[in-house]
Write a structure and sequence with these properties.
- It contains 11 helices and 13 strands.
- With about 325 residues, the protein is an alpha+beta fold.
- The longest helix has 18 residues.
- The two termini are about 25 Å apart.
């Protein structure tokens, strides 16, 4: 992988999108530079070309500015040919000036926090805010056992908790096939860790890895165990485990001002913008599309039965990307 590549840039990720969600993709090339773009169709949200759906990062895997400029032009041409509403590139900020020179619009609706794992455990602990340290300490008294999921049964148990968590948050879940697909196709770069008590999963997390970086991709927790901080003790244990092999821990995209944003902020990582670059072709995006469907999210959270949410969720989420 190049400096800009992530697990989301891999062929395995693109094939997962095609097999699970039926998404067509193109890998645009300019010399050694590649830019994956994926067609996302939706009657609700409109048709879009995205690099890359369901990913914190997309954009070109490149070090050459000239190659990025030329491949951006190719992406626009493909988007026009597919008659999409707009093209969305989720790329590191270092390519921002190049995309803006091609009349892309920069939007920074998300941030992440990146934790330096090369520090000692004592230094990492000291970088946490007081509330986070207290919650971890409380969780460590809960008697949880930390496991790495290594079989179908454990992965399915993680998925069940993930689906319930998404329902509680008012968001449609991925289908089980998406999670199992990640674990099969990306088995060398995907890890599920869980915290259990009395044989029951109280919290879980799915991590993706690339080179020296860990991506905190999905997390879930039992509402019943929320007060004894299973998720906090799992996350801290995972950070300490990952520092043996990796240099950076990426907490993943988060909307500023949200409860999750302030939660992640407490773990001592460096606040990092995650800009998206847009070429609007048929329709301008004035705000993140999720913002327009807050009412739907509330209905989903409060009134949708779990069984129905699991069945309908994948049909909706494939239209979000």
């Amino acid at each position: 992988m190049s400096e800009s590549s992530t697990p989301f840039h891999s062929n395995e990720w693109l094939m997962l999108l095609k097999e699970v969600h039926g998404m067509d993709f193109n890998i645009l090339k300019q010399g050694e530079t590649e830019l994956p773009v994926v067609l996302v169709r939706s009657r609700i949200f409109g048709n879009r070309m995205i690099s890359i759906p369901f990913a914190d990062y997309g954009g070109p895997g490149a070090t050459s500015g000239m190659a990025v400029k030329e491949i951006a032009e190719k992406a626009v041409a493909v988007s026009i040919d597919k008659k999409v509403d707009f093209l969305e590139i989720r790329t590191p900020i270092k390519f921002g000036d190049i995309f803006k020179s091609e009349d892309f619009i920069e939007r920074t609706d998300y941030f992440t926090f990146v934790l330096n794992l090369r520090r000692s455990e004592v230094e990492l602990w000291s970088s946490l805010d007081k509330r986070t340290r207290n919650d971890i300490t409380k969780g460590q008294k809960g008697g949880f056992r930390i496991h790495e999921a290594d079989g179908e049964r454990q992965i399915k148990a993680f998925y069940e908790l993930y689906a319930k968590t998404m329902k509680r948050l008012g968001s449609p879940p991925q289908p089980l096939s998406f999670i199992t697909g990640i674990m099969k196709k990306m088995k060398d770069n995907a890890i599920i860790r869980t915290a259990t008590i009395n044989g029951e999963i109280a919290a879980g997390a799915l991590f993706l890895t690339s080179s020296k970086r860990v991506h905190y991709y999905y997390s879930c927790s039992s509402y019943r165990h929320r007060k004894i901080r299973a998720g906090d003790v799992l996350l801290w244990d995972s950070i300490i485990e990952f520092r043996k092999e990796f240099s950076l821990f990426d907490f993943g995209r988060t909307r500023p001002g949200s409860g999750v944003f302030f939660y992640k902020q407490g773990w001592g990582g460096e606040k990092t913008p995650m800009p998206y670059y847009y070429k609007f072709l048929k329709k301008k995006l004035n705000e993140r599309q999720e913002n327009k469907y807050e009412l739907l999210s509330n209905i989903w959270r409060r009134a949708m039965p779990n069984s129905v949410a699991k069945r309908l969720g994948p049909r909706i989420i494939r239209q979000i990307g």
